[in-house]
Design a protein that fits this description.
single chain; 345 residues; alpha+beta; five-stranded mixed sheet; two-stranded antiparallel sheet; 12 helices; 46% helix
């Protein structure tokens, strides 16, 4: 079954490895969805650049990684009708996946288009962003549903690009070199930051306008704030992969001056003092600098480099503690969604 020969998407299979303390053993899922026809449109737009995207990431990664011929299928967009098993979270939901995680089996990459796109979720998001962003950043035009979709699509595509879990250095793959939890955090960081990098990379090729690119980048920063607000570790000490990658991204962008905390300026909602400004002119260089750092760490299986990133932006967070505290307080004002699925014909 694929997006071209079926209207349906069905998966009964091993799932993500987040459930396992060592980030190795998969959970189990049952998922039923309808194919969103817009996936075919995006595949047509991005297909010509598939191997060029791999070349771009390989150039930043450097030796010993070399570019491969990329054979993956770009993401299918699906409208979820049923999530069951470990895929059925009590709160929230996964919006994109590229599975299986490892091995030679070709991955099928999907983006869920009907999650967080309902009117209540969009209104809640607008209120939250207005409480965090300064007026100029918040006023940037965008379409939350479209911007999230583009970001998720490129994130999932990027899992298939550059050095991944199966990349080996002196016979050791990523899990052996970094350990399961850190390997998962690095892989998700690679995918998320590559999504930002590729948005800029695709803009001059006419895939996105400059306005759309800025909107996608702002959406990605908001996404990072949401994960920072949930903390770096679960109650049992298990690392939160997305929270940690988000802290690395935001901390790195703040260090480069692309994101600025303005303690004396009012947020866009006019009620909260102190806000965050995104300097969109500085963000492309900040994204590329972090992209090169992360890809080189993965290309070389450089555990020391990975630990330095984690220490600087996740654990030794005094420099960014106030910003994290404000983001957490304001994002947690909004209740987290619990989804009820329905499918309209």
């Amino acid at each position: 079954m694929n997006a071209s020969n079926s209207k349906w998407y069905v998966r009964i299979a091993p799932d993500e490895v987040y459930y396992d303390p060592c980030a190795w053993k998969a959970g189990f899922a049952l998922q039923l969805a309808r194919i969103d026809p817009s996936s075919l449109e995006w595949q047509k737009r991005l297909e010509p650049y598939r191997n060029d995207m791999e070349q771009a990431l390989a150039a930043l990664a450097g030796a010993p990684y070399t570019a491969r011929e990329v054979k993956f299928t770009l993401p299918d967009f699906i409208v979820v009708a049923l999530n069951a098993g470990d895929q059925r979270a009590p709160m929230g939901a996964t919006v994109g996946q590229s599975l299986p995680n490892w091995g030679e089996t070709p991955r099928r990459t999907v983006v869920m288009t009907n999650l967080y796109a309902d009117p209540d979720s969009l209104a809640r998001r607008a209120r939250t962003e207005a409480s965090v962003f300064c007026a100029a950043t918040n006023a940037k035009p965008g379409d939350a549903k479209r911007d999230d979709l583009i970001g998720s699509l490129l994130h999932e595509a990027a899992h298939n690009l550059g050095p991944g879990h199966e990349h080996r250095v002196n016979g050791a793959d990523a899990v052996t070199a970094f350990g399961g939890p850190l390997a998962s955090t690095l892989e998700e960081l690679k995918a998320q930051n590559s999504a930002l990098f590729l948005t800029y990379w695709l803009q001059p090729k006419g895939v996105f306008t400059a306005e759309q690119t800025d909107a996608v980048e702002r959406s990605a920063v908001s996404w990072a704030f949401g994960h920072i607000s949930r903390g770096m570790y679960a109650a049992d000490g298990t690392p939160r992969n997305y929270g940690q990658l988000a802290a690395i991204q935001v901390g790195s962008f703040m260090a480069s001056g692309a994101i600025e905390w303005k303690p004396q300026e009012m947020a866009a909602n006019g009620a909260d003092q102190g806000c965050i400004e995104i300097h969109f002119d500085k963000l492309p260089d900040a994204v590329q600098a972090l992209e090169a750092t992360v890809l080189k760490i993965k290309a070389q299986n450089d555990r020391a480099g990975a630990e330095r990133l984690k220490t600087q932006y996740v654990d030794d967070n005094d420099e960014y503690a106030r910003t994290k505290q404000v983001v957490t307080e304001r994002f947690l004002r909004a209740p987290k969604a619990s989804f009820v699925y329905s499918l309209l014909f």
